[in-house]
Amino acid sequence: MVTKKTTKTTTAKTTAKAAPAKKAPAAKSTKVATAAKPAVPETADMFECACAEKPAKKCAAKAPKAEKKTRVTFSVRAEVGSKVFLAGCFNNWDPTAKQLEDKKGTGEFSCSINLPKGKYEYKFVIDGVWTADGECPDWVQNDMGTINSVKIVD
To answer: What is residue 89's three-state secondary structure?
Structure first.
């Protein structure tokens, strides 16, 4: 009986050692093949722009290199210590994408972004409240029944 138990144990150990050696190379080759495939579609940086001159026009999150951009500064007054952001069609109306800074601590918040020629709708988000630019004379009514400020870049 002792001989049979030793034989069974030896067989089990041999099988256990052989099985992982066969599985390991197969797993590695599967991962390499999966990682090589591109997962992002070509149009991932595209979105509908609510303020485009043509309603069906798509705006690219990153403009083509050949298109000249202009540095545009946005500024607004708010209480010192406020959290102020810029949202507009140029950043898909993301209320936290671009934070304005109060560099001097006086309540004058500003930021600059580079934009190609076009017409852009925007708002400030001051401590979570969407606010039109009171200093901007150009505005349009939006689908929410409020107004958006308009910046034209020539």
So the answer is: helix
Q: How far is CA 66 from CA 17, 46, 59, 90, 101, in A?
A: 61, 18, 15, 18, 30
Same domain, residue pair 26 and 51? no
pLDDT, tens digit (0-9, with 9 covering 90-100), for 85-94: 999 999 999 9
Find the domain containing 1 and state its range: 1-37
Do 32 and 51 reside in the same domain of the chain? no
Tell me: do 8 and 71 sit in the same domain. no
Q: What is the DSSP string of 1-36?
A: -HHHHHHHHHHHHHHHHHHHHHHHHHHHHHHHHHHT
Exposed / middle / buried, residue 109 (Cβ in 10 Å: 0-12, 13-18, 19+): buried
- Position 120, amino acid: Y
Amino acid identity for residue 8 in this structure: K
Residue with tokens 């200093």: 135
21 and 55, same domain (yes or no): no
- The model carries a pTM of 0.59
129: CATH:
2.60.40.10
pLDDT tens digits, residue range 102-153?
A: 999 999 999 999 999 999 999 999 999 999 999 999 999 999 999 999 999 9
